Amino acid sequence: MNRLASKFAALKADGRKALVPFVTAGDPSLEATVPVMHALVAAGADVIELGVPFSDPMADGPTIQRSSELALGRGAGLRFVLESVARFRQGDATTPVVLMGYLNPVEIHGAERFAREASDAGVDGALLVDLPPEEAAETREIFNRHGLQLIALAAPTTTPERTALLCEQAQGYLYYVSFAGVTGASDRLDTQAAGERLRALRKASPVPVVAGFGIKDAASAAAMAPDADGVVVGSALVKAISEASGPEQAAERARAFLAPLREALDRVVG
What we know:
Blueprint: H1 3-14, E1 18-24, H2 33-42, E2 48-51, H3 62-73, H4 78-89, E3 97-101, H5 103-109, H6 111-121, E4 125-128, H7 137-145, E5 149-154, H8 160-169, E6 174-177, H9 191-204, E7 209-212, H10 218-224, E8 230-233, H11 235-241, H12 247-265
Parallel strand pairs: 1-2, 1-8, 2-3, 3-4, 4-5, 5-6, 6-7, 7-8
Helix pairs in contact: 2-4, 2-12, 4-6, 5-6, 6-7, 10-12
């Protein structure tokens, strides 16, 4: 059983919700990336989504766009991302790590080489925002040969036909985008509408369903969690650590931000 399956099985057995923080590799500094990852785990993270910096992050709002731009300026390319995961694995052999980003860096690197090197570094899955499910078969086959799972996305605008396709292909977990838009627009989060969609998805999906976009604090995490298997928090966390003066302060800010979300999720039943 891979790390993602093991983690979600353990959470289900304990009746707990997954807390999945997103941070951009290389931000707020190259040196802070691995300490922040460890701090997130110490604060209760179950899975880490590590953003692969990209020059045109079309699904992301201003906070993560800026984070990605700054990280690229520091030299946080794909090689750095994989090296960071490998360093993280030296101290943590169990927490699943999913790379989140866009198809272009994978295509430039070569899908086969990317999958092999990512797996060797200790990556468990990849979420490629701009890879349509109708065109994902070859990439998924390559990833699976190297033990890498291709995480799929669903949205409020996803048709029943495409939902069926996504569930047929689903691996690791299904990421539900809580509203149509970009990351960070927390004012657009409608927990009631998202909850209805999440309940339907969980009935259809063979893998756990986690909700992302618009979750910014303990209250919004707790509001979304009853109808999901877990929640993703990204932009608010990235902003919270963005002005840290060094790796130690970045790690402490990450820990302080995430801990209240963990406490809130552990009170959720559903």
